[in-house]
Amino acid sequence: MRTEAADAGMSTAEYAVGTLAAVAFAGILLKVVTSAGVQNALSALITKALK
Known about the structure:
With 51 residues, the protein is mainly α. It is built from two helices and no strands.
């Protein structure tokens, strides 16, 4: 006998993969945002906006 509740939601393995993917994405985003080129561009944008 199969119930609908047995297929609802993510399993522990799916949570682990989802968490790993989120952490990897956050790491990549952190590297991009803290790169010199992006920091210079943001600084220039803020400076221009404040003038």
